[in-house]
């Protein structure tokens, strides 16, 4: 195992929060069943409690365990995963601490090191962008160090636009990010 991944995993297992340079923007990561870590993410970001965190998954099999997936989900995942698309679907396995009770946002990132960490952590991590709620995402390692995470994974982000978010429950594009909303509408 990558030594930095081992340090990040140890931090997560101790109830800590990890800042990570994902394939889209810097992110904050926690184990989704760690009340302490999830609360810290909300506190660090100043994020409203009614705004759920997304779940990063290690592939479609893990997504199937967590959400009710239909043909639209499979089509979107085949086209855009791993990559910058968060798909919101009805929750099969709720993670109440992250606000994902009736529905859940899932994404499989393209960053291979991040995927190694997700797999090592059991196949799923709670995640959100590294920023103050409503502000632009952190862009550099130096900014990430100053944010207050328990461990900051060394590196820089490869992108600078957050993931797009589609809600298969409502049929809406909730956020236009790396994938234009016009491209996503044809799948809804």
Write the SSE topology.
Elements: H1 3-13, E1 18-21, E2 26-30, H2 35-45, E3 54-57, H3 60-66, H4 71-80, E4 85-90, E5 103-107, H5 112-120, E6 124-129, H6 141-145, E7 151-152, E8 164-167, E9 172-175, H7 181-185
Parallel strand pairs: 1-7, 3-5, 4-8
Antiparallel strand pairs: 1-2, 2-6, 3-6, 4-5, 8-9
Helix pairs in contact: 1-5
Task: Supply the key terms.
188 residues; nine-stranded mixed β-sheet; DHBP synthase; 7 helices; alpha/beta
Structure description:
This protein is an alpha/beta fold. It has one domain (3-185): DHBP synthase (Alpha-Beta Complex). It has helices spanning 3-13, 35-45, 60-66, 71-80, 112-120, 141-145, 181-185, and strands at residues 18-21, 26-30, 54-57, 85-90, 103-107, 124-129, 151-152, 164-167, 172-175. A nine-stranded mixed beta sheet has the order 7-1-2-6-3-5-4-8-9. A hairpin with a 4-residue loop joins strand 8 (164-167) and strand 9 (172-175). Helix 1 crosses helix 5 (112-120). It is globular.
């Amino acid at each position: 195992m990558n030594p930095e991944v081992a340090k990040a995993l140890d931090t997560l297992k101790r109830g800590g929060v990890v800042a990570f340079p994902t394939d889209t923007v810097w992110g904050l990561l926690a184990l989704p069943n760690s009340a302490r870590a999830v609360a810290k993410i909300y506190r660090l970001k100043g994020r409203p409690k009614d705004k759920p965190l997304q779940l990063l998954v290690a592939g479609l099999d893990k997504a199937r365990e967590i959400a009710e997936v239909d043909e639209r989900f499979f089509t979107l995942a085949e086209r855009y995963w791993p990559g910058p698309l968060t798909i919101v679907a009805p929750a099969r396995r709720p993670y109440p601490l992250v606000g994902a009770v009736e529905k859940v946002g899932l994404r499989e990132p393209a960053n291979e090191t991040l995927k190694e960490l997700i797999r090592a952590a059991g196949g799923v991590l709670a995640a959100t962008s590294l920023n103050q709620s409503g502000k632009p995402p952190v862009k550099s390692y130096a900014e990430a160090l100053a944010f207050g995470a328990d461990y900051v994974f060394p590196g820089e982000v490869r992108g600078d636009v957050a993931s797009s978010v589609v809600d298969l429950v409502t049929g809406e594009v909730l956020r236009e990010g790396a994938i234009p909303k016009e491209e996503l509408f044809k799948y809804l």
